[in-house]
Amino acid sequence: MGSYEGTISVLEAELAAVERVFAGLSDDQWRLATKLVPVDPDLPHWTVFELAGHFDIAIGLTRMLIAGREASQPARDRASFFINPRSETAPVVYDYAYTMVQGKTPADMPGVLHETFSKTVAEARAVPAGTVGPGYFAPMRADEFVASRIVEAVVHGSEAFELRHGRTVAAKRSSFPVRVSFHMRWKAPALVVMPW
User: Fold this and answer.
1) Which of 109, 138, 163, 180 has the fewest CB atoms within 10 Å, i.e. is most exposed?
2) Model's pTM, two decimal places?
3) Phi and psi at residue 162, to the nearest 5°
4) Is 194 helix (H, G, I), strand (E, B) or coil?
5) Which of 138, 112, 142 is nearest to 124 (CA)?
6) Contacts of 113 (CB under 8 A, 6+ apart)
7) What are phi and psi of 132, to 5 degrees?
């Protein structure tokens, strides 16, 4: 594994790529349905707008971990963060995306994401790798949680890129070894990293 700073730098680069995708969306693209399948088949798929809401909370959780520092033992790592019952987690994740965009418009979201992404990176750099805090499901180290956010950026960033550009991304670009087969329960594409 690389250094904590290296991991933060990869996250920063992936988030910058995600920002570029969201900054260039047309009104019609914000309304496109994603391929992410809700656990309840009667619910609508997220649009790109709700996907932006998911990014806001998913990346912003890093800031919550740092703000909630505690003297406890980590109970999850970058891989085990994603291992949980879909039937319990997916409905909460689905609803959070809608909560995060309440009262906002698509025009607001590039600025919202920029603020969340830049504060997340800055705050991650301001704490040691071994900082432990609430990692949503259980305490996690900052370095492990930051690594898990790269998975979020790559998987969901691929979806946003594909919807914006109308083509699948298949080029490997990231230097970070991400294995996301366990994340496929969301029907996201196989491991792909944006070619930006």
Assistant:
1) 138
2) 0.82
3) -60, -45
4) coil
5) 142
6) 18, 19, 22, 52, 55, 56
7) -115, 135
Q: How many CB atoms lie within 10 A of CB 42?
A: 5
Nearest to 185 by CA among 95, 97, 82, 98: 82
Residue 161 above 90 pLDDT? no
- Rounded Cα distance between 69 and 141, Å, is 10
Question: What are residue 74's phi and psi, to 5 degrees?
Answer: -65, 140
Please state, in angstroms and as integers, the Cα–Cα distance from residue 31 to each residue in 9, 25, 48, 53, 186, following that order.
Answer: 31, 10, 6, 13, 19
Residue pointed to by tokens 């990231």: 174
DSSP 80: G
| Nearest C-alpha neighbor of 78 from the set 121, 129, 127 | 129
CA angle at 146 for the pair 140 and 152, rounded to the nearest 5° = 110
Tell me how far CA of residue 144 lies from CA of 65, 104, 132, 150, in angstroms. Answer: 11, 31, 10, 10
**Side-chain half-sphere exposure of 169, counting CA atoms within 13 A:** 26
For the ranges 29-43, 143-157, 160-174, the lowest mean pLDDT is seen at 160-174
Q: Phi, psi at residue 25, to the nearest 5°?
A: -80, 140
Structure tokens at 3: 């250094």
Burial class of residue 105 (count of CB atoms within 10 Å of its CB; 0-12, 13-18, 19+): exposed
For the segment 62-79, the average pLDDT, to the nearest whole number, is 89
User: Both tokens of residue 168?
Assistant: 């699948």
Length of the chain in terms of residues written: 196
